[in-house]
Amino acid sequence: MSLKHFLGDIKTNVLLHLLGTSSSFSEIFFSHTACRQLSQMLFAVLFFHGSEYLLAIIFHGKSNVTLSSLLISQHYVLAMLFSVLEYLLELYFFPGLKEFWWVSNFGLLMVVVGEIIRKLAIITAGRAFTHLIQRRHDERHKLVTHGVYSIVRHPGYTGFLIWSVGTQIMLCNPLATVVFTLVVWNFFHRRIPYEEYFLRQFFGSEYDEFATRVPSGIPFVK
Ligand SMILES: C[S@@+](CC[C@H](N)C(=O)[O-])C[C@H]1O[C@@H](n2cnc3c(N)ncnc32)[C@H](O)[C@@H]1O
């Protein structure tokens, strides 16, 4: 759908709402567009967290894995609820906004690419990839600099940023796209210096050399 059609669609919709002759919510909710985009979202979320949990069990053992390994925090649930609310409101009032299929498909591509990068990071780092940042050096903890870690220093975070913003582009959610980008970027912008403070303590000049050679993988984070 082009922008011209979309703006025309908004005008038509406002008129239909004023005249009380707009489509019912169930008609819109069960439309092809909504069914496809919402089921893609559900599958993306279930696959992401399910595989995250499974890999944590494989690398750290069931007894060391808690529900936090699913990476579901209160803020995360609120952000996801906000995105679904935005989606449903826009679906009802501006259904044309959800018909930008090239945008939605680009978001789907980001979800797939982000997921692959994140999982490559987890598999490459293996036991070193803990969901909580390590503050004490374990003898067995070695610095990982090969595979995806030779391209960016924080591929797990790069993957998550691409995946999470991708979910919102896939839903054609303009507001949540901006909010997710800012919130996730800000989270990693603070977390990376904290994580690297400990990595420098563990690995010293080896980490300094790694950090000068390889970019962080998060835009505008050195
Ligand atoms: C959630 S993982 C994230 C790893 C990395 N920041 C990423 O995005 O792929 C956090 C743990 O990974 C460890 N870690 C981060 N980078 C590492 C590296 N290059 N080699 C070994 N361990 C690393 C940290 O000590 C921390 O406990």
**Radius of gyration, Cα only, in angstroms?**
21 Å
Cofactors, ions and other ligands in the entry: S-adenosylmethionine
How many DSSP helices? 8
Q: Quick one: biggest sheet?
A: none
| Coarse shape | elongated
Beta-strand content estimate: under 5%
- Give the helix proportion (percent range): 55-70%
State the separation between the terminal residues, measured CA to CA. Answer: 39 Å
Subcellular location: Endoplasmic reticulum membrane; Membrane
Catalytic activity: [protein]-C-terminal S-[(2E,6E)-farnesyl]-L-cysteine + S-adenosyl-L-methionine = [protein]-C-terminal S-[(2E,6E)-farnesyl]-L-cysteine methyl ester + S-adenosyl-L-homocysteine
GO biological process, one term: methylation
Protein name: Protein-S-isoprenylcysteine O-methyltransferase
Question: What topology emerges from the helices and strands here?
Answer:
Blueprint (H helix, E strand, L loop, with lengths): L2 H17 L5 H5 L2 H29 L13 H20 L7 H25 L29 H16 L3 H30 L1 H9 L9
Give an overview of the whole structure.
- The chain is mainly alpha-helical.
- Helices cover 68% and strands 0% of the residues.
- It is built from eight helices and no strands.
- It has helices at residues 3-19, 25-29, 32-60, 74-93, 101-125, 155-170, 174-203, 205-213.
- Helix 5 (101-125) packs antiparallel against helix 6.
- It is elongated and about 70 Å long.
- It starts with a helix and ends in a 9-residue tail after the last helix.
- 23% of the residues are buried.
- The model has no long low-confidence stretch (mean pLDDT 91).
- S-adenosylmethionine (SAM) binds at residues 121, 125, 128-131, 133-134, 143-144, 149, 154-157, 195, 199.
